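Work Package 3 (structural annotation) set out to generate three-dimensional models for the target panel prioritized at the project kickoff. During this period the team completed the workflow that converts sequence records into discrete structure tokens, so that structures can be stored uniformly alongside our sequence database. As a representative example, we reproduce one entry of 294 residues exactly as it appears in the project archive.
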Amino acid sequence: NGSLYSQVTYYKTIGGLRDKAESERYANMLFFDFDVESDELPRLKNEIKKSYTDLTGKQRLNQVKNLQLEYQNLLFETDVLEKPLNDAKTLYSYLKSSNINSYAVFSGSKGIHLYVFFDECELRNYTAISYKLAESYKSGLKLDTLDLSVNKDAIARKSRVIYSNHATSNLFTIPIDIESDSVTEILTNAKKQSVIPFELDDYVISDDGGFVNVLKNIDASITDKKSEIKAEKEKVKSMITGTAISSADMFSALLCSFHFCLFHISILFPTPITTISLSISAYSRRLLATRNLP
């Protein structure tokens, strides 16, 4: 028993981990977290944490157990999980209609996790890709409980390993049948650590299907544009520091720099300003099988 986490990206060599080399960071999944807050759950969570640190022995054991039971009862008696579950179902169904199988997991507390597994590949800009896709899903499918902060900081974030125990609720992180399981069934099953076998190969999207190629194309596009921006900044810098630069050249350089700044914003976090014809947005639409979001 106990909380157990894994990172969604990883290094394949000790040297890569030591040097934090972008070129050696790999990924084989996308991770989406559906979560919602309530008035009482944060209070109980803080009380449980405080009990762990301030108390000892049987006093701590009994206090934590009583608070965890109160936490569980609150999950059972309120509809706090309904909205995250319904939003996760929406994305699950949408991906399925695009021939993308996702894997649904109850977090062990108040959220639902959705994984999209694919063949391992090197992605230098994993966070930008993850965030853009999550942002597109959230706005296009109206997924209010999709937590973008997880995708905005995707490399640093960790996901709970299935069948591990959640220290706040004392429930287990378990896979669910998102198409049929009710909230009551999910919470009841999460009370016990019963292993449900599954074949990962049934969920992994093969590179042959083009999905991984789209991710790689997005990644390469971002990397290329970053290089262009860096080169342009260096060019502007050298022009500004030059002794023979004219005021007209200066103005032109600043305009050029401003254009690339706008481009930088639009390629990573789309704005109403259109500065390119081929951007992450276009690739995102390809990733969604070129289907229009509702």
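The chain has ten helices and seven strands.
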